[in-house]
Amino acid sequence: MLNAVGRDIPEEILEKVHKVPFMGNGHYDGYEIKKTGPKTRCVISNGKNKLVSSIREALELSGIKDGMRISFHHHFREGDHIVNMVMKEIHEMGIRDITLCASSLGKAHDPVYDYILDGTVTGIEASGVRGKIGEAISRGYLKNIAILRSHGGRVRAIESGESKINIAFIGAPTSDDYGNLSGMGGKNECGVLSYSSVDADYADKVIAITDTLVPFPNYPCQISMTKVDYVVKVDEIGDASKIATGAAKPTTDMKKLMLARYCTDFVTKTPYYRIGFSYQTGVGGASIASTLYLADRMRGDGVKMAFGLGGLTKPMCDLLDEGLCGALFDTQDFDTFAIQNMHHPRHYMITAGEYASPFNKGAFVNKLDFVILAALEVDTDFNCNVVVGSDGMLMGAQGGHPDTAEGAKCSIVLVPLVQGRMPTIRDRVTAVTTPGESVDVVITEYGIAVNPRRQDLIDAVRDSGLPLTTIEEMKEKAYSITGEPKDIEFEDRVVAVIEARDGTIMDVVRQIKE
Amino acid sequence: MKLLKPAAAGTLESSDCFVSIEPSENGIEIDLKSDVIRQFGDRIREVIGETLETLGIENCTISVTDKGALDCTIRARVESAAFRSAEIKEEIPWEKL
């Protein structure tokens, strides 16, 4: 069945995952759902000790068994030790048929590959998969169909009971012995625990794993003791040098600087650029450079930002420190500077639900004026792919891409026209993750293409002197440089589904042809 | 052009390719590895073949490890390797290339 972005979603897959095809943004606006709460084992006795001696003991006490769904967060990024430590125990216990429900999985989790092969892990639900896990899914080694969700979509799936978590594991840089958790302090600071909040709220059992026990009460806490069953102390929850790097050096790549310059020029020409605007950007070289350019323009124009949102890096925190930005609402910290900036009184942690869930009473993304995004591929209908490489291999994450693109009044995608030999602007993307109706502007080094759906934006910048072009012209230019790529071949078998924010099916990913 | 010895050109940097060529007597044998072989493998073989033809090479073993190079880069690397193999250092027939 063709969905709203023209992708053919096979009936048998829809039946298998109990889903319907994507029907366009806003289809579920006003829809009512009943949220399902967790099972809670009450602690009334004042003698209860939550501190247990090992992950194994916590697993046993939590009643781990075959077929369970367990969850993790990715605030430790490529420095995470939690997933591997827990999975090693589960494997040694001989438990099978586990579904991993993580906010994201990366190269740090390559050891899970072996557990997929031997049937310890048979299901994966994540924002994205990289490295060997992506390879295992793409090659068809995972027993069940993997489900890829945006950050907001994950919250929706958990709260609605569609993805019922039996045991949640929360790596916490600091905890007291009663389970008040924080991303601040300790030897492996990550800043915030935004993605774990929904796990703590909806999992039947919650196990906190820390390497830094602090005296009770660990306040201010980001996750409350009222949701935590057990606390385990281990030697190292992660590798600090990979959890947060130093601030990225500003790029000197002329192509990226050009994208950044076009981006800032465009932003400042739109009616949304005014006192009190809101802004989210990414961590790529072009995004960071555009934040620096934007800061210059704001100083010159006397325009201040009301708030910045999302994953944060030093340049956004500098805006707060300088008074150019009124507040930051933080879901993830990418450098040590952003973590330390959490001490600023107007730098707040928000949960993934507050950030981006489509199935609550209103999230931050709905209040965004601008979001600056990247993509692996964009098609001539502005559909973006951020999860499947041009070679067909799963290699990226949806993250907040679909959430912010839909929420923001002006979503801008920065992409080089050509990456290696692959044209980035194409007739058809390998997979759709973000629908074209959410994407307002695409910027390459060859110019700026505004989505024809946004006549208001086209009118606003028409006489601005900006290098305006069309997405079709961009595609032609790209193909003239690289040649026309042949469509890659896949096997018939569907190995993953890409869920839209609202849980409908945006696209399917098929097994790679060897 | 007569190839005299094994020779190479290029790098394994992104958007480049590494070409090694050696004389042989069994026609043209192309060994291609590429990051974009699924999308551009046929085109890359075509470019290698055309370049060898332009140079008047009828027999060689050529191995190309491609990291997403554009046609112009592939052509230039194949030519460099061939000239090195033929020990042609001066009077390169630029107008023919």
Q: Can you tell me about this structure?
A:
The complex is a heterodimer of chains A (514) and B (97). Chain A is of the alpha/beta class. Chain A is 26% helix and 21% strand. Chain A folds into two domains: 47-243, Glutaconate Coenzyme A-transferase, CATH 3.40.1080; 254-488, Glutaconate Coenzyme A-transferase (3-Layer(aba) Sandwich), CATH 3.40.1080.10. Chain A is built from 16 helices and 26 strands. Chain B is built from two helices and four strands. Chain B is globular. Chain B is an alpha+beta fold and 97 residues long. The longest helix of chain B is centred in the middle third of the chain and has 18 residues, at 37-54. The chains are: A alpha/beta (514), B alpha+beta (97). The interface between A and B is medium-sized, with 14 and 14 residues.
Note the beta-strand portion of chain A.
15-25%
CATH architecture of chain B: 2-Layer Sandwich
Largest interface: A-B, 14 and 14 residues
Q: What do the pLDDT scores of chain B average to?
A: 95
Q: What is the CATH top level name of chain B?
A: Alpha Beta
Q: Major beta sheet of chain B, specifics? A: 4 strands, mixed
Average pLDDT rating of chain A: 97
Q: Please report the first level of CATH classification, the CATH class of the largest domain in chain A.
A: Alpha Beta
- Per CATH, the architecture of the largest domain in chain A is 3-Layer(aba) Sandwich
Helix fraction of chain A by DSSP (H/I, runs of at least 4): 25-40%
Class by alpha and beta content of chain A: alpha/beta
Oligomerization state: heterodimer
Enumerate the spans of chain A where pLDDT stays under 50 for 5 or more consecutive residues: none
Total helices of chain B: the number is: 2
Number of strands of chain A: 26
CATH fourth-tier homologous superfamily of the largest domain in chain A: Glutaconate Coenzyme A-transferase
Give a quick account of the main beta sheet of chain A: strands, pairing sense, barrel closure.
Answer: 10 strands, mixed
Radius of gyration of chain A: 22 Å
Please state how the strands of the largest beta sheet of chain A are arranged side by side: 1-10-9-6-2-3-4-5-25-26
Poorly predicted runs of chain B: none
Distance between the termini of chain A: 27 Å
